[in-house]
Amino acid sequence: MQEPTALLAFAALSDATRLRIVRLLVRAGPEGLPAGAIGSAMAGATASRMSFHLKHLEHAGLVTARRDGRFVHYSAVFATLADILAFLMQDCCQGHPEICASALACACPTPAR
Which of 4, 75, 95, 101 could lock 32 by a disulfide, CB 3.0 to 4.6 Å apart? Predict the structure, then answer.
């Protein structure tokens, strides 16, 4: 990931609503959620407000939209999220990546059994 792309993603994530949307879509997994469900989860935000935030996230490459009849489903773009983590960690710890292991483990914790 190049710095301008990272800055675009960070700018999109710097808004509390957009950050909550991305986290919601990460929890939802690859299937994502319909726009209406996202709006409901965001304390009933108006459709126009949700559209604004979702378009901003889509422009930054953090979410993708797909039509399903009358509905639009949004999903997190996990590859972009992984690229952001890689961008942040690429020069980790001056050549001692074992120091960063705990940070990387937090990014994708092992599910409880």
Answer: 75
In the chain, the amino acid numbered 88 is L
The three-state secondary structure class of 5 is helix
Q: Which two tokens stand for residue 108?
A: 């994708």
Largest CA distance in the chain: 51
Give the other-Cβ count within 10 Å of 63's Cβ. 24
Closest CA to 105 of 94, 91, 93, 89: 89
**Residue 91 pLDDT:** 73
| Residue whose tokens read 């609503």 | 17
Residues in the chain: 113
- Strands (DSSP E) contained in the chain are 33-34, 63-68, 71-76
Distance CA 31, CA 10 (A): 24
pTM value is: 0.83
Each residue's pLDDT tens digit, 4-31: 999 999 999 999 999 999 999 999 999 9
Angle between helices 78-89 and 16-28 (to 10 degrees): 120
